[in-house]
Design the sequence.
């Protein structure tokens, strides 16, 4: 089967996909989001003027959280609140409407924190969002940053990130000396 604009997709270029716990297929496109139930597409087109509409244009990543809400990686991080059918935006300091600057990876860790990566000016940026406090933390290779990472970017957009069975976060970064494997010390909150 082939789905297209004629079927209700906001745009034909699908960038991300997720099957949720109810069996719906969520499709992220370059002009918004769509939900497919196997028969019909419900589009959620890019609608920046609507305070509870889909403010994401390029949907580069999708993730379902522990409560069944769908998190959307776009120019900002967005949560589709299933109970109210509203989109809630959580902008970070890297949010902007530039082509290919959208979030490309989302992961919720065992503590409920949301991890994202995005490509920004040739570097893969790792960020962490706490949904309870609405606070972002940025991990960079700036030695003055308390959340310092070796290297100038992560290895790949998603395959350089992992959480082990004990909840420890591991990343692979790339720098002048090659690739470096690092893990997050949860006590100091540093890699």
Sequence:
């Amino acid at each position: 089967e082939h789905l297209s604009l004629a079927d209700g997709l906001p745009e034909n270029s699908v960038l991300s996909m997720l099957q949720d716990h109810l069996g719906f297929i969520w499709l992220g496109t370059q002009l918004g989001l769509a939900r497919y139930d196997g028969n019909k597409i419900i589009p959620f087109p890019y609608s920046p003027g609507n305070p509870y509409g889909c403010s994401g244009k390029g949907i580069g990543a999708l993730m379902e959280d522990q409560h069944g809400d769908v998190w959307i990686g776009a120019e900002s991080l967005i949560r589709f609140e299933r109970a109210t059918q509203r989109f809630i935006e959580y902008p970070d300091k890297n949010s902007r409407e530039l082509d290919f600057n959208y979030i490309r990876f989302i992961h919720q860790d065992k503590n409920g924190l949301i991890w994202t990566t995005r490509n920004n000016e040739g570097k893969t940026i790792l960020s962490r969002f706490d949904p309870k406090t609405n606070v972002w933390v940025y991990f960079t290779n700036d030695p003055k940053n308390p959340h310092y990472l070796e290297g100038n970017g992560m290895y790949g957009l998603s395959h350089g990130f992992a959480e082990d069975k004990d909840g420890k976060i591991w990343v692979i970064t790339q720098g002048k000396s090659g690739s470096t494997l690092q893990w997050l010390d949860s006590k100091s909150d540093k890699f």
